[in-house]
Design a protein that fits this description.
This protein has 267 residues and is of the alpha/beta class. The protein has a single domain, classed as TIM Barrel (Alpha-Beta Barrel), CATH 3.20.20.60. The chain is 48% helix and 16% strand. It has 13 helices and eight strands. It has an eight-stranded parallel β-barrel, surrounded by ten helices. The protein is globular, with a radius of gyration of 19 Å.
Length: 267
């Protein structure tokens, strides 16, 4: 029985965003085994991203989690440690359906990420043979490359004042799909670390959302796991991707709660 690419390659996050639905994302920073992908899917998350920027995950571990996510029907992304082409390639070749690029400061930075993530003619990604996204099946490059280009998302982190200053130019970059605001790093650069209610934070979200709407791109909310009220506000403003928190944060929160329950028990 012949298999078509469309039967095995889907980016459900991209599909939801196209329908203007809100995407729930989980960040993997602690668990180094494939079970986390199935757990995320069972919990109802649309996507997970392995945060290689903030931990010491190997590319082998990262790829295993991404492949498990593909099998579980949840879209895997990787936040790469840098925007270097070799990091983008390692993430995508391992099974990610998109990269989250940190500390993008200009349109030129964003274009470099797109070039590393996309096959020609959209970019310079090197063809390395069968890939996890296609179940390691062989398809003609004339079919596989355009399909992978379409399914692969490029997400840039908006977490610097330089990026905010150039938000219009970054939003206009062809092949870039989403701008996710890294609220913690952005407030730190503003000199107001953790002060999420500062008017400059709302202004940054408003400005980024307007630029993305103008250029047909999406907006993501990052760093506001402790502030669901603000997250909801920014979703109403137009954000459609929500980074809900990390596996480390989820585990620690539940541990604290359970320990407190026992300490509060009366004898």
């Amino acid at each position: 029985m012949s298999v078509e690419i469309r039967d095995i390659l889907r980016n459900r996050v991209k599909e939801k965003l196209a329908r203007e639905e809100v995407v729930a994302s989980m960040t993997v920073r602690l668990v180094r085994s494939i079970e986390i992908a199935r757990m995320a899917a069972s919990a109802g998350f649309d996507t997970l991203y392995v945060d290689v920027e903030h931990n010491g995950f190997s590319w082998d571990t990262t790829g295993q989690i991404c492949m498990a996510a593909l099998a579980a029907g949840i879209t895997p992304f990787v936040r790469v440690p840098t925007t270097a082409p070799e990091h983008v390639a390692a993430a995508l070749n391992g099974g990610a359906l998109g990269v989250i690029a940190p500390h993008v400061r200009s349109a030129a930075d964003a274009r470099r990420v797109v070039a590393a993530a996309k096959f020609p003619p959209l970019g310079e990604r090197s063809a390395g043979g069968p890939v996890p996204h296609l179940q390691f099946r062989s398809f003609p490059a004339s079919q596989a490359d355009p399909a992978l280009n379409d399914a692969t998302m490029v997400i840039v982190m908006m977490e610097t004042l330089d990026a905010l200053e150039h938000v219009e130019e970054i939003a206009a970059v062809e092949g870039m799909d989403m701008m996710m605001i890294g609220t913690n790093d952005l407030t730190a650069e503003m000199g107001i670390p953790g002060q999420y209610d500062d008017p400059r934070v709302r202004a940054a979200y408003a400005r980024t959302t307007a630029a993305c709407r103008k250029h047909g791109k999406h907006v993501g909310v990052g760093g506001l796991a402790s502030r669901p009220d603000l997250t909801a506000e920014f979703v109403k403003l137009g954000a459609r991707y929500v980074s809900t928190g990390t596996d480390l944060g989820f585990l620690m929160s539940t541990c604290l709660q359970k320990a407190k329950q026992v300490r509060d028990m009366k004898t």
